[in-house]
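Suppose a classmate hands you a notebook page containing two proteins, each written out with its sequence and a corresponding row of structure tokens. How would you begin to make sense of it? This section walks through that situation. The first entry is reproduced here exactly as it would appear on such a page.
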Amino acid sequence: MEIPSKYNAQDVEKKWYNFWMEQDFFSSKPDEREPYTIVIPPPNVTGVLHMGHMLNNTIQDVLIRRARLIGKNACWVPGTDHASIATEAKVVAKLKEEGIDKNSLSRSEFLKHAWDWTDNYGGVILQQLKKLGCSCDWNRTKFTMDEDMSEAVIKVFVELYDKGLIYRGHRMVNWDPQAKTTLSDEEVDYIEKQGQLYYINYKIEGSNDVLTIATTRPETLLGDTAICINPNDERHTHLKGKRAIVPIANRVVPIIEDEYVDLEFGTGCLKVTPAHDENDKVLGEKHNLEIIDIFNEDATLNAHGLHYEGQDRFEVRKAIVKELESLNQVVKIEDYTNRVGISERTKAIIEPRLSDQWFLSMTELAKPAIKAVLEDQDVKLFPKRFNNTYRHWMENIRDWNISRQLMWGQQIPAYYYGQGTENFVVAETAELALEKAKEVTGNSELKLTDLRQESDVVDTWFSSWLWPISVFDGIRHPENDEINYYYPTNDLVTGPDILFFWVARMIVAGYEFRDEKPFEHVYLTGLVRDKQRRKMSKSLGNSPDALELINKYGADGVRVGLLLSSAAGNDLLFDEDLCQQGKSFANKIWNAFRLIKGWESADIDQPESSRIALSWYQSRFNATLKEIEDHYSKYRLSDALMSMYKLIWDDFCSWLLEMIKPGYQQPIDKKTLKSVVQLVEKNLKILHPFMPFLTEEIWQLITDRQPEDALIVSTYPKHHESDQQLISDFEIIKEVVSNIRTLRKEKNISFKNSIELAVINSMNLSQDYYSVIAKMGNISNIAETSSSVDGALTFRVKSNEYFVPIGGAIDIEEEIKKLQQELEYTEGFLKTVQKKLSNERFVSNAPEQVVASERKKEADALAKIETIKSSIASLN
């Protein structure tokens, strides 16, 4: 079969992925083998492949392909997350384009649009993962809104409620006015934002006196219900017991005293707005203050906003400052930098808001998960330093706000009866809820129409925290064959940014619902950044199109490029040159294979140089395999790949093939050819997890194979002990050969001309290696000697000295002439340096490192002159 001169990644990738799918090599069913299970961190159903996905899923594919090769029952479960906030935002935007207002739709009507959008656009990312070579069991693809997955979420909600762990409470929450939903603390990012500090005068009731408060949010004064001073602040003793008048609103409010007030901030007087600040709410409850909420759900002002009703909060800020200035109640305005919370999903500035929400008590639930990671180490984090982050989150855990004011998601299974929201029951279905309501009320006449279900849905993370269990139906059917076989899973590969969001919560769920860890190891990848260390993002324009990279460099090239500089937990500074390096590596392997396939074999004796070279490479392979397995055990995949890279590029392609290559138009002996093909196959097996397409293509071109003999399901090489002495000796041999080649190049001795070599063998290096040196250096004769050889060029490797008698190989007179010219130049350079060093002003005034540099130049020149003179003497 003729091998194409160039490797065509696009054709090869499509061909072999289709072949693997047709042969069902990715699928897994419980059997007698040891399972190896990975569940994919489900990307948002709205998502498309980006660099973070590429890195994360390449790592997972490396692990799953290796597990398959070492004989485990490899199961990689793919799927997507319904991403309540992100998906609902996409659907709302699409409806808006069509002239439809979300609020004009019933829940069922909106959900129909959401499902239509999901069916049309969702799951694109999973198709893109196939381009990368991901060998997921696509038959197992799950979606967090699948019927069985949703049933599991509802079942868990009811179970936790019945245990008293879920409750409904009126709390201050993080409100996203763009998505119009509450967020958990972990879904809020904090940024430094340049703002202003406004100093505003409030009049004192019944007098001409004023007090001054400092605030960054003057618009909220319309919700003020008190002014607070520190009882220990001597500046404000005259205010005790008095009342103030809120500007514009003209509301009279009490002046209260509390040590909460910071004496150093602003003026020491604090405006209290219980509806719009967590700390103000605490003060309000303590001092029994009125609560006035001035915002609508989209952060426009409501009727309490007076003549600003309906206007956006930030527009009102500007307008209210102007109005206060017109009333001469603004004392001054200062620039001020403060931390502002923004929504992780929409990037809208968060508004604190009092609201009825559903919460999950976390303190007791977290205890087994803390013990599993930090004490028993049943779950291990890689790198281990993330244990500290885990400890911080888990030991300071707060109750989880699990309700969201959205339509897309699992609707909370609470059913209200009667007026208001005080009376409700929680049940998996409306029918079960009706039975419960009848029992609670004693009213057997109640009908389904008398119940109304909670409109909120659960937080998306509340479904994905069940992922390793629910993908195997372990919530609904806790003793089914699949959950008992595949759970706990083995490795979880994810980013450290969701260590608490998702990883910690899955560990909590594992111990709560199965009394067992969900996985053994968590490999935390770094974030992909650009060369300037900026996070990849569309807004910065620094995130390359993932599919374009694959088209340009091939999937294998991109995988290698990503992994070559992706140590666990460290950010990856992405450079497209890395993908070019990966592509070049693929081409190097391809060309090496073409070279081997081009050799003709014959029944001739195996050269000694080939025998020993093959023995050396086998030992290098064994040593590298041991190294690779150690890297795998520590999740150092970048190091594992680099070990393979050096083995194949340097040892195999650059050295072994040169050592065994037959002479021009000469055949190779059959024994050597057979051995080198076997070594190619071993190389392909260890490299397959990283470069699946290229390796499968070469594997299939080596010989005709049956489908069941494909590389993807072949057997990983067994580790054998390596001959360390042989490996060590060969490093010396390589250095000797490199010196001979350098000498030939410098002295312009054609490689076609054979030369002789004499050696003072102080190291007692085995003469078995001389055949390799002779082959690689075109040496006609190697002789051992006890003394130096006159008229020979010399070099030293370790304690051995080597001599090359040049005889007629070079033009002696021409060589002496070149050396004389080099000597004259170096002597002239030396005089210049010494003249500078003899100048006392220079030596006294120049920086110490400059003088030291000149002295080094002098020493180097003297040594070089000595060497040149010695070479001239040997030629005379």
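The notebook's second entry, a different protein, reads as follows.
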Amino acid sequence: MHIDKLLVSTKFSPPRIGTQTILRQRLLDEFQLMTQCRVGLVVGSPGYGKTTLLAQWRQAMMREGAEVAWLSLSVDDRQLSVFFAYLRGALQRLGIPLDNRIPLESARQEFVDAMVASIIDGAGSLTKELYLVIDDYQHVADPRAHQLMQKLLDHCPDNLHFVIASRVGPPLSLSRLRLMGQVVELDCGGLPFEAGETRAFLEQNLPAVKLSTEELHLIHELTRGWPASLQLIAILLRSNPQARGTLRELVWRSDDLHTYLAEDVMIHLPADMAGFMEGISLCRRFNASLAEAVTGCQSAQEMLKRLDEENMLIFRVESDDRQPWYRFHPLFGEFLSTRLERRDPAVVSELHRRAAHWLAEHRLLAEAVRHATQGGDLEFAALVIERADPASWGLEQLGPLLRLLDRLPQDVLFSRPRLFFLGCLAYALTARPAKAEVWLEQFRRSGAAQQSDEDFRVPLVQAAIEIQRDRTDPVIGLLERFKALSNDYPVTRYGAPVLLAIAYSAAGRHAEALRCLDDNPIAEADLDTELSLVAGGARMLCHMLEGRIADAERVGMAQLARAIGVHGYRSVSAYLGAANLAEVYREQDRIDESRDILANRESLLQWAMPQTMLLASICQARLVLLQESAAAALAFLERQERHFRNLGLDRALVHCLAEQVRIALLGNDRALAEEHAARLDALAAGYEQARGFQAEIPALAALTRARLLLATELPQQAFEALEVVRRYTCEYHRGQWDVTALLLMAQACVQDPQWLLQAIEAGERLGLVRTFLDEGVAVQRLLSSLGDQLSSSRQRDYVRMLLSRFCQNKVAHAVESDGAGASAMLTPRELAILQLIGQAMSNKLVALKLNISLETVKWNLKNIYVKLGVSSRYDAISWARKHDLIE
């Protein structure tokens, strides 16, 4: 029987695209160039949606009238004759007349050439544009099949275009075509979902499960945009929505994920390669030399090259090293290491020890300590730290160091003064000052301090403890005359000026704080270290404490971008920058950006410096208030209140109480406000003479008392309380606090505009927005009544901007006017979308108008419906008109 009679017709049919599939618009836009190109190439690891993308592209092309044929290959198509038969069948479906007399069962060169000539002549005889998609090209094994494709690509007429999808780069020479601009390419770097696509996918596939921003960000971080694993998560959460609380464990331990990886990724691999991959999976990143040291495989370089070429869920890591570094996708790496541990747990410890020794030899301190600790070799881990050049120790070592300290006997620690010093500092800098304090006292009593040449660093440890206790005045005394050695640890050389600058700023000495940082510049070689970026975060914090939001943004954006780029999303410097910049964006009314920065950074709320935890907590509470509800914000603040009480951080506790009073008053719940205010006053009574950061406590109590007095229509008493606040703001130069006090004074003395005018002058200079908006309709009315009392054009523009923001945020203040009638709060983007659909615009037109994707419009509309308690566009528009949000 002729081979054509045996062809499976389904191989010429593209897969169906389900209704829950996310449109990959940004990738489809790139493929628009296919109309001018000869070859399209999509290369990527399993499960990254290559087939779905090309099916979407085919549909789009066919809607425009193009002729597009499809060919799916499989492992059964390895034989040259079978591949020829299917290729000819696909081309014939494009209408290309081909000579069926060519004996495809023969592999002789003249028949291959005849086949190529027949295809070229047949396509050239047609006037229409022809496209052939070849999916799963990695199954093509015969070199003569590649030779056929090469000749077709080199000589085919301009109207014939090939689109090839493969797990590995096909052995085709495309250099000449690339130079001619005839190739469109997508690789592993472009195929993963972006954060917005992840969100759209989950919203579309889990309509009944409302995931928070934090959960969406966590899922995107876990999967790194891998569509196959996202599909798995959707299935798991659809069947068990309560599992969202254990997402990380749920995904890593999923039998379905392990089955997919075992059967679709690993099954065809040789045993030696599978073992090699399992061995190196214990390393978060690896190069050929490390891989050889860990696995003993002398062909490690060739193995890694092959894994890279075959896209085995392996990715290049940016590095200055001449030898390339790699990492596995985190879910795949976890799968591999789990397989190894289940099969041979004894070998795991040995592999960790080998990795530790190689990393130590190459001065990769943090990774060496981590592997030595995981391998149970605590002695070697301690030696690595002690013997390392102090200049090589930075904040990135905090995590591995703390894991070592938790397992190291205390007597061993005290016998190693250098390790002891670093351990005390590590605990002091990670919100565990009590442990550092106890250790320091025991160290002094043991007499080890007198026998050690490390004791000159003790003032720095003590200062780190004091700053965690919010006692900033002692820090100034400890560090003003502190001198680090020129070759000392970076944490000593740069950490001391950072702590001193924060203490100066807490004392209101902002200029001295900035001068302290300027007088202790970061060495050129250390510019990208964690500590240099933390110093940038300290500079930003000084601006924020003074209320200079515009300056804080300028410093903070660059600092956070560098921190994430160099050290990653979860680095210490990135966390510090995130807390600061999130609050800056919130103050600037950039609510979505603020929420995105804080997403999935729970540690900021639990285990950071007091000022960082405080900033992140209040910022998060206000974001929840704006984007969810007052009840959700109050519940969050109650949780943080308990946490700060356990840590003994009264200043952060007072801020939580003050914010609860403010929210309660917005909802006219005076009883709840008075209850929290009474607790706040009781705490503040012990801090009347406090200095530095702790001086905020009585000032905040007075500010909160003024709010209550205004709510009970006692303006004169409120004014007197605000004078207390202003004495604090003047002494400590706290501009943002001062504007808040002035706005409340303006409400207490409506007849006297001087307080409002002063607030406008300071607010414009500092770059404040939400400080005005958060005071609600009372301030809006005051601004609206100013008339021509503003002499400066800049101030007039500033007030106009504020009033326009008030209009955009009407819903956010509707709680004040009609309580339960306004049950939701919209973000500026949601309000803009609501206004546009009120003008009868389609979703697509709204997307074009706002320069956002169609999926983003749909996602925001869903949020609007949920917040307003409606189910359709008509109901949402009716609600908005009723509340004067749209005309």
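A careful reader of the second entry would note: The beta strands are 39-43, 67-72, 130-135, 160-166, 183-186, 314-317, 325-328.
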